[in-house]
Amino acid sequence: MADNTERTFIMVKPDGVERGLIPEIMKRFQRKGYKLVASKFMKSDLAHIQEHYVDLKEKKFYPGLCKYMSEGPVFPMVWEGQDVVRQGRILLGETDPLKSKPGTIRGDFCICIGRNICHGSDSVDSAKKEISHWFKKTELVDWGPTENTWIYE
Ligand code: IDP
Ligand code: MG
Predict the structure, then answer these.
(1) What residues act catalytically?
(2) Degrees (nearest 5) of the Cα angle 69, 101, 22?
(3) 86 phi-psi bin (left φ>0, alpha ψ -120 to 50, beta other)
(4) What residues flank ligand 1, with Cβ below 6 Å?
(5) Ligand 1 atom closest to Cα of residue 119
(6) What is the pLDDT of residue 37?
(7) Coil, strand, or helix at residue 112?
(8) Per-residue model confidence as pLDDT tens digits over 13-58
């Protein structure tokens, strides 16, 4: 049986927020058929972002990445549905916007790898970690959209 309850962590980064792209990015997941489970508008402190990107801490771009991510508001979200982690990465496009196809979020809306407007979990395991890093259990909304009966067989 396919798992319709898989979850991923998607976040509009400060450049995406500043450029007014929150609704556009939400729309891509909504219209595909995925279910919004949580979202919030917030500013993160540096330590929180450093922990989010801890796997990249040896990279040269890590300090600059963490600084830019903590200097403006972000819009973290949790989306749910069949294969949503992998599909979310496809909707986002490649890490480098110049390698992203038109029709993807990064392919359509940005140019620089260091300003690629959105984050998406790269595996089910990292999605679990990221969701609990950004959201309390009580912020995850348990609901069954009626449209789900028209999205899944
Ligand atoms: P991802 O966001 O597609 O999962 P990761 O390799 O996990 O890509 O890198 C996290 C973020 O770090 C990227 O989205 C991008 O903002 C930034 N980043 C990755 N590589 C570079 C680089 O070479 N220069 C500047 N920033 C980078
Ligand atoms: Mg990543």
Answers:
(1) 119
(2) 40
(3) alpha
(4) 56, 61, 65, 95, 113-114, 116, 119, 122
(5) 2
(6) 97
(7) coil
(8) 999 999 999 999 999 999 999 999 999 999 999 999 999 999 999 9
